[in-house]
Request: fold
Amino acid sequence: MNAFIPIQPAPSQGCTDVVPLVERGQREVFCGLTGIIWLHRKIQDAFFLVVGSRTCAHLIQSAAGVMIFAEPRFATAIIDERDLAGLADANDELDKVVNQLLARRPEIKLLFLVGSCPSEVIKLDLSRAASRLSALHSPQVRVLNYSGSGIETTFTQGEDACLASMVPTLPAQPADAAAELLLVGTLADVVEDQFMRLFTEMGIDRVRFFPPRRADDQAPIGPNTRLLLAQPFLGDTARVLQGRGATLLSAPFPLGIEGTTAWLKAAADAFEVAPERFEAAIAAPVARAHASLSRARTQLEGKSIFFFPDSQLEIPLARFLSREMGMTLLEVGTPYLHRQHLARELALLPSTTSISEGQDVEKQLDRCRRMAPDMVVCGLGLANPLESEGMTTKWAIELVFTPIQGFDQAGDLAELFARPLVRRTRLAA
Ligand code: SF4
Reply:
């Protein structure tokens, strides 16, 4: 067994210069409100108030309902017919709702006003509302706003918009501050703890996570901040952090052994960790990960896979499934192709990979049926119809809700893909 998988792009640089098939037609994706489901669990003293319709309330409740064990930290301020008809002052109504909420829930330290399609249609200015309410309730509560609307978005953009809205409130780093590593993107607590242990073993001790678990744990930002993206869908957040002077480290994403090794190595190189110390720190988890991948590899090797665009995780997942699981990539669809953030990933994909950006769902369904893949990764709306046609599907959203990053989750990640194939085989038997 090798201790490491060599991180070497193919001589052709894989898909670095790929010209994707760009489609702008009907899309089948969830809206950015969906991000509230994992964000409210991460920032434990934040509250998400959606300013939207009953449809928005139903979406959030049905997506999160089964996970509620205590009073939820999200709700919807319903825009009703009177607001839409201009008969009521929506700002007055919103102030009333916020004042009642904060009086009843003193544990809230950070309140997000989350815009939706209806609030955008009636042009409700939530940024002014957030400033007004912040002035009223600070310093106990900060009020921020972002849009989770489904107009021209896919569901992971909700997290990007949320994190980007927090950046202007982060303090400035003192000019003489030591270099600090900022890991950007929501990770499960257990994954954060594993990464923290690895960084400590490498001797990198100035590490912070964004978003933080507590609203008042605000990372200072400045030229000595080194950014490492934990999620590939954070284009706006990275841009505003770079605008505050932070430096973005180029890395693939921490999925599978290869991605996690290269991601950690980007941090190790930025903090001048000796190669021997880096290798010693990761040796044991890499060995565990190799062992955990072997069973799923037997089931996945040689199987073909087709990705519909949904979570924006598609390209890192395709890289993992192709290089570590031996799967054949038929089409890798992504809602948006961020070439700079995905540069290291694209270089690792087979140069023959067919990549598409955006969606024209009927045309894509035709291509998928023609190719008859062994597995399809898609949104919930497409999964059931495709299953009824005999295809094996994997819900893209499950890959965002489940801890899949890091060495100790590599086996779980592979199993997420192996399980539907095993189930299909059993049904056919
Ligand atoms: S924000 Fe728009 S797409 Fe999302 S649930 Fe509300 S109405 Fe639907």
The chain has a mean pLDDT of 93.
